[in-house]
């Protein structure tokens, strides 16, 4: 699909503003690499996961890159499941390790009953771009519902209010980035993200 995706979350009115084409898959994979390099880890070092019957969920998985790289470091018996509202950027099933599965799921709707309380860890990154204040509580409840007792939620976000667009001298104007910066710095009056 090359046109701009207009899926809407069931809990809100914010459409997915990015494309779901090859270039967007490159963007997602680059973001993954950038975050991993900046943080120095995929899993936070203080997260102590069991070695047996390990189950990890990646919510908003996109291309599944986080799970694919994680699968190299997990036991082959670990079950790694990715969830996204669209399968457009999922790699073909035959490219996935046997213990990696990708599912279509609106994260603002409850997950299937058979997945509730079954994950040792749930991972989520860059979700605030499609979360309205009205949607944050149902999303958090859905994420927590996936966790086993004493499970871990790893949620990575940037600090949008401190984001700055820097441009090398002599380069063309970064109009789109400047507009995005203004949008991030001007939250809705009811925003809880101040």
Key features of this structure:
alpha/beta; Rossmann fold; five-stranded parallel β-sheet; 26% helix
Brief description of this entry?
The protein is of the alpha/beta class. The protein contains 4 helices and 5 strands, in the order H-E-H-E-E-E-H-E-H.
Polypeptide structure, described:
The structure is a single chain. This protein has 194 residues and is of the alpha/beta class. It folds into two domains: 22-158, Vaccinia Virus protein VP39 (Rossmann fold), CATH 3.40.50.150; 161-194, no CATH class. Helix content is 26%, strand content 17%. The protein is built from four helices and five strands, in the order αβαβββαβα. It has helices at 22-39, 65-71, 133-146, 175-185; strands spanning 55-59, 79-84, 100-104, 119-125, 147-156. A five-stranded parallel β-sheet has the order 3-2-1-4-5. Helix 2 links the parallel strand 1 and strand 2 (79-84). It is globular, with a radius of gyration of 17 Å. It starts with 21 loop residues before the first helix and ends in a 9-residue tail after the last helix.
């Amino acid at each position: 699909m090359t046109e701009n995706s207009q899926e809407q979350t069931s809990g809100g009115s914010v459409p997915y503003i990015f494309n779901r084409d090859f270039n967007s898959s490159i963007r997602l994979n680059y973001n993954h690499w950038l975050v991993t390099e900046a943080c120095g880890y995929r899993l936070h070092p203080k997260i102590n996961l069991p070695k047996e019957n390990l189950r990890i969920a990646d919510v908003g998985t996109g291309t599944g890159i986080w799970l694919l790289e994680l699968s190299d470091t997990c036991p082959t018996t670990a079950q790694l499941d990715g969830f996204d509202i669209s399968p457009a950027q999922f790699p073909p099933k035959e490219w996935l390790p046997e213990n990696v599965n990708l599912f279509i799921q609106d994260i603002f709707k409850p997950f299937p009953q058979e997945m509730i309380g079954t994950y040792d860890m749930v991972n989520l990154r860059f979700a605030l771009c499609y979360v309205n204040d009205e949607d944050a509580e149902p999303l958090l409840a859905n994420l927590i519902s996936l966790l086993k007792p004493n499970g871990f939620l790893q949620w990575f976000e940037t600090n949008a209010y401190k984001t700055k667009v820097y441009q090398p001298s002599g380069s063309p104007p970064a109009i789109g980035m400047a507009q995005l910066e203004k949008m991030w710095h001007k939250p809705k009056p009811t925003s809880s993200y101040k």
